[in-house]
């Protein structure tokens, strides 16, 4: 058993020190100072928790709660806006998951359907005029020239700044 598995087993060891499943952790604790420190800290935390007393609820707590529940049940139902607002404020986003999954599935179906329709169609070859072709060629050549200039700048800069390493 290594330190990681031992420290994962420490709570079980603390709750039931004599259990046969904890023998490996007990054996590791005898030889490992770091895990011993961890075990002692955990033990003192548990001891502190044992001394803690949960506060008692106030008198008439149950009666007050029952009255509140009856009042809420008797109250007129909230409007749709109020219900939507409380749902958005206090939601755990769990209730929206089915709707979200449905929306995603719909998007997939619509997207897939559109793609299938487009694949089924035969595209007519796009006719480009000679002027557009010339402009595209000029654009490409300009890009090539810019790239060449950059390369030349970079390599000359390297030549100047390079110092032989001895
Ligand atoms: Zn250890």
Report on this model:
- By secondary structure, the protein is mainly alpha-helical.
- Among the domains are: 49 residues, no CATH class; 55 residues, no CATH class.
- The protein is 73% helix and 0% strand.
- The chain has seven helices and no strands.
- Helix 1 packs parallel to helix 3 and helix 2 packs across helix 3.
- Bound molecules: zinc ion (ZN).
- Zinc ion binds next to helix 1 and helix 3.
Q: Radius of gyration, Cα only, in angstroms? A: 37 Å
Q: How would you sum up the major sheet?
A: none
How much is the average pLDDT?
82
List unreliable stretches of 5+ residues: none
How much of the sequence lies in strands comes to: under 5%
DSSP strand tally = 0
Summed up, the helix count is 7
Order of helices and strands: HHHHHHH
Class per helix and strand makeup: mainly alpha
Alpha carbon gap, first and last residue: 52 Å
Shape descriptor: flat
**Roughly how much helix do the residues carry, as a percent range?**
over 70%
Small ligands present = zinc ion
Quick synopsis:
The chain has 166 residues and is mainly α. It contains seven helices and no strands.
